[in-house]
């Protein structure tokens, strides 16, 4: 790899470190090509990606980035799993590590916060952005659907509701 290629890799890694919501660092010694492809597919389906890079180039790319703290984890054969969603990459890495003993999560970073092994596990248990949006929409939509249901109910139901309210007001 010549100097221009190395500079290109450092730039790509720098963009990854800057734009990612979470970066997980793991050792992958002993994984087969098929297993690595499986990891890449899982990450892609979750909106993330997997990258193997030379540790020295990754450390250069980390200089001045929010997740600079993961530089100490870059020893041996490391793989980076990352995503813009602050939870997706951690979930993919944790699920993959459960079924593959040779995939050892070392830690990671969530923005400026360094994560140890337990921190990555904790992040993976958090709901994803899509799950949070769905629950918020459900909470917002519930009162409206109740009102719509009451309005659409037969007139006798509305009359009984009004009489109940009237009785409570009189009491």
The residue fraction in helices comes out at 55-70%
Indicate the radius of gyration in whole angstroms: 25 Å
What is the typical, i.e. mean, pLDDT? Answer: 85
CATH class of the largest domain equals Alpha Beta
Strand content: 15-25%
Task: State the strand order across the main sheet.
Answer: 2-3-1-4-5
CATH structural fold name of the largest domain: Alpha-Beta Plaits
Notes on the structure:
The protein has 171 residues and is α+β, with helices and mostly antiparallel strands. The chain folds into two domains: 3-126, Ribosomal protein L10, N-terminal RNA-binding domain (Alpha-Beta Plaits, 2-Layer Sandwich); 130-170, no CATH class. Helix content is 57%, strand content 16%. It contains seven helices and five strands, in the order αβαβαβαββααα. It has helices at 3-19, 33-45, 55-62, 88-99, 117-124, 129-152, 155-170, and strands at residues 22-27, 48-52, 78-83, 104-110, 113-115. A five-stranded antiparallel beta sheet has the order 2-3-1-4-5, sandwiched between helices. Helix 1 (3-19) packs across helix 3 (55-62) and helix 4 (88-99) crosses helix 5.
Give the topology, please.
Layout lengths: L2 H17 L2 E6 L5 H13 L2 E5 L2 H8 L15 E6 L4 H12 L4 E7 L2 E3 L1 H8 L4 H24 L2 H16 L1
Antiparallel strand pairs: 1-3, 1-4, 2-3, 4-5
Helix pairs in contact: 1-3, 4-5
